[in-house]
Amino acid sequence: MSKKVFSCHKISEGVGEGEVIISKDEIMFYLVRPETGEVLEKAHDIEGRSVAKKAIIFPGGKGSSVVQSDGLFQLMMHKNQPAAMIIQYPETVLVAGAIIMEIPMVDKVEPDFYQTVKDGDHIRVDATNGTITIL
Q: N or C, which end of the chain is more exposed by having fewer CB within 10 Å?
């Protein structure tokens, strides 16, 4: 299978590669177990799954600035932060967290990407150059 490349908009520069995990729900990183990256929020679309070192695709964040920042920071301290974040509705707190913690983050991805990518795919997010490659 040939690699498929899609354009996107850089929010936080860098390159991240990993398995795709797709969430239809907004994520509150404070409700993610730092030691494993497991989503703890009850009835969440990806409850029980780990976001550690994954390329996560999700609509946006939820929760106050303190809990979002602390949640991402705790994941980083345990080396379980996401490899990359593809977000549909970026907000200031998550953007700042991604920049500070050097997690590549993009938005404004080509619509075909969302029709093509599947949970479990392996992708490379090159936020610096504005591309996502399905490997």
A: N
